[in-house]
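debug: dumping io for the single-chain case to check the tokenizer round-trip. Nothing else runs in this session.
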Amino acid sequence: MAAQAKIANHADTDGHFRRKPSQFRNWISDDPQAEFPAEKGRYFLYLNLGCPWAHRTNIVHKLKGLENIIQVVVMGCILTSDGWLYDDSPGSEPHDPLYGFTKHSQLYFKADPNYTGRYTVPALWDRKRETIVNNESSEIIRMLYTAFDRFVHPPLRENAKPLLPADKWAEIEVMNEWVYNKINNGVYKCGFATAQDAYDANIKSLFEGLDDVEAHLASTRLATSPMPFLFGDHITEADIRLYTTIVRFDVAYHTLFKCNLKMVRHDYPKLHDWLRRIYWDTSAETNAGAFRKTTDFKAIKQGYTHSLKQSVVPAGPVLEVLPLV
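debug: decoded output
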């Protein structure tokens, strides 16, 4: 029971939240001789609809048109003392379709009976070797960019529509680093803090990061119109990694995680425009709406409410993402 209780405890004893590193770090390759070669129907992507790290992988899965190549398995969005469960809630499978498991932890123990870490999502599963290939979202999305390209529609391949373009790679890497530390993980360092000094130490950094994104978007303006995305006319990895935090900001982090110095919709006009542009897009740029189709606000609010051991789910804001005008 002591080990189970730790699952839903987020902060360390000093009140600070420190994210633990992912433990499964293998790689799927387009090389047929690789340990984990790309094959149609071999791999399963486990996630829930509330988690922003899993959301990254779900977006890329849709952007790349991998629906018939890699099966997505969705579990419930409420973290319990037993970890994530298949609870048959809206969006959740009634059980793991491969093994009939009712707990996500059972998949981890099938991969490694001696596993001692957290039972996190996303998790990329190999049904042939019966193991987790990788449970680090930043690595999973990069596998999906190229490893399965021979199976997907040519216009969606990385060489035709790069999510990590070579000429922007260095700049994207720099942005990824500070966006992760200040924003993606920064909201958690505020929301899961259990001591005032821990919260105070991170709230300033979070909003400095948001200010930096606003300034970056302002700097990409052309003479007559803004660049639509973080690095120009097309979506890149930087947009994907930022989106999953920003789309949750006003609806969850501002209220539940006490990230309440400012709101995106009222205080960051360029960031707000960027969010709405991506969310409402249904063009080929987002493969007919990959961002909006993978965003479930009910799961987001419920998941974060229960992660804080609360039971009352906030109602607002009335429109989670305001329409484009």
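debug: round-trip ok. Confidence is low (pLDDT under 50) at residues 1-5.
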